[in-house]
Design brief:
Blueprint: H1 2-19, H2 41-50, H3 54-59, H4 62-84, H5 104-142, E1 145-150, E2 158-163
Antiparallel strand pairs: 1-2
Length: about 170
Amino acid sequence: MRVAVMVFLAAVSVASLEAQDTIRILQDSAAVPTQRLYRDPHRAQVLGTILPGAGHFYAGEYLRGYGTWVVTVTGIGMGPVVYKLDRCSFAFLSGSECNPGPKWPNRLVGVFMVGAGVWTWISSARDAPRAAERANERHQSRRLRALIEPSADPGPNLRAGVAIRW
């Protein structure tokens, strides 16, 4: 029994020494600094999915976001109206009898408008993460960076300054 206890204590002591080995240093995951993004691509995609153009507004592409919103709302809102219109839609204003004519052109245009509105909304939601990445790149390139580099002149001179990328 004493031998088993001694073997157990020796094994435990060796294992605990191995845990404190300073040769193998692992990087602590809590100490790794994570760079915070200027605009989050996932948030832009969620916003663009909920409301057409909102992801582009979030990313700073206001004109594209507004255009997406206008095309989507116009297509989805006016498509059913155009689908139901015919020549006799406003016949109540005149007292004469009306011939409605063929219905297929209006129905075709109405279905096309709704489809274009839905397609624009889906395309905008898919492009919103890339818009956020473009905003991050623009934000990163606008930051001031200090430069210290060797001079082109012979000698130990250094050029120092601030780089501003336009």
